[in-house]
Amino acid sequence: MTLTPATPPGSAPAGTLIATIGPPGAGKTTWRRQFLATTPATVVSLDELRARFSPCGCSADHSVNQVATAHGLRITHQALQTGGTVVWDTTAASYPARASMLACAAAHHARTIAVVILPPLIHALRRNARRDNRTCRTCARARRVPDHRIWAMHTHITAALPALHREGWHEIHLHDLPPYIRQPNQHAA
């Protein structure tokens, strides 16, 4: 396992699963777009899959999470089976979400890279505040995530950081960590 601070994987070897880990508003989709500018990969965006499977077309419709995730895992299996690179653009805030991706990668002996994007909470909240807050009449959800959910995910991911390496990732890349979380190459003053 390699732990590297603030260095994105410039290119990924064939048969690689890359998963973003971060709360809503962290910049995961921005990172994904920048990565794809230099590295071809299959993208599995849980937001985009929810929009595809939701009767109302909303990316925030969590009633279709199970179907969207299962479809994303099928896409991942197909891409890894042919030695491709897959980028999951999702919060992956819980261990079960990460474990399902890791199991899929393990079935294909694929390399795994976790890209933790965890800016200070206030930054994620500010970015999220710019999202549309209108509630869908069908699924009763808005694109903007409630602040308390972002806070909870940020807290959960922060708490998971010390043990993340034990989950089975080959590499862990850290981005935008808050100043109160020291990176491995930093020393206390």
Automatic annotation (TrEMBL):
Keywords: Kinase, Transferase
One Gene Ontology MF term: kinase activity
SUPFAM superfamilies assigned to the protein according to its UniProt record, in alphabetical order: P-loop containing nucleoside triphosphate hydrolases (SSF52540)
Entry superkingdom: Bacteria
Species this chain originates from: Tamaricihabitans halophyticus
Name of the molecule in the record: Putative kinase
